[in-house]
Fold this protein.
Amino acid sequence: MSMKRHTRSVLVAALLAAAAAAAGCSSRTSAEEAPPVPAPVVIETYTVESLPIDRFIRVTGSLVADEQAEVSAESGGRVIATPIERGTPVSAGAVLIRVSTSEADAQLQEAEANAAQIEARLGLRPGDSFDPKVVPEVMNAKAALDFAEAEFARIRSLLDQKVVSQSAFDQRRTQVEAARQQYQVAQNSAEQSYRSLGAARARVTLARKALADTAVRAPFAGLVAERLVSVGDYVTRGTRVATVVRIDPMRVELTVPEQAVSLVGVGQAVRLTVDAYPGEVFDAKVKYVSPSLRADQRALTVEALASNPDGRLKPGLFATASIR
């Protein structure tokens, strides 16, 4: 029994010694494997700045043509040609329709003949200035007056010599007065004829304009939105014949609510979207601002211009816009 107790004591002591040795080894290992001291942290600094943040006003509106003209005939007659159709691009002055020229030609010929007749009576040639003294009738009257005055001077000298009677002298004096009156009348008549020539030339100008107006022309470069007459139709002065529009640039009429009026001005950038082109944004710029609000809506009308070189934007489209 004592032997067994002795053996157990030895085993316990041995186990305790082994545990102590293991603990010492573990402490030394932990001390040797400790992590290194971390490197210093690098700190970067930045300067704080104040920058503006864009604000946008969301409004709606419609697209309209930059220019739109309802072109009318200025001369009556039968339509003989319509060289344009809906959508035809036209330049400024391009012919939209032609009206028969027969009546305008006749009126022009008549006016030119009347003017030429008066010019011949006055002895005027193109480019000559008017001088009543060189008008043939005036020159004839002046020659008659000179002859009468010469005869009167001769008779007066004869009367002094008692060669002719007093009655003959009085007759010559009367002839001089009559010739002088004829000369004055001729001058007045020449002046009146010259005034008539001015009126005749004005009628020539009107006749030429009437002839030119038989060709109805585009007032500006653009597109034909509508043609209202066909060959064979009879038009009178003022009859609408076509509609011409210019859509580059395109106008955007926007309605700005009253509370945002102070935030809108000429030159501000505008971003447009239309339902016809989902996801696309078109740039524009405020060009015109109405001087007053519409009383029925308590809103301000603003117009922006958007570049439209390809013609994709069409008048009448509904637009949603953000004004920066």
In short: DSSP finds four helices and twelve strands in the chain. Residues 1-7, 26-31 have pLDDT under 50 and may be disordered. The CA atoms of residues 61 and 254 lie 4 Å apart.
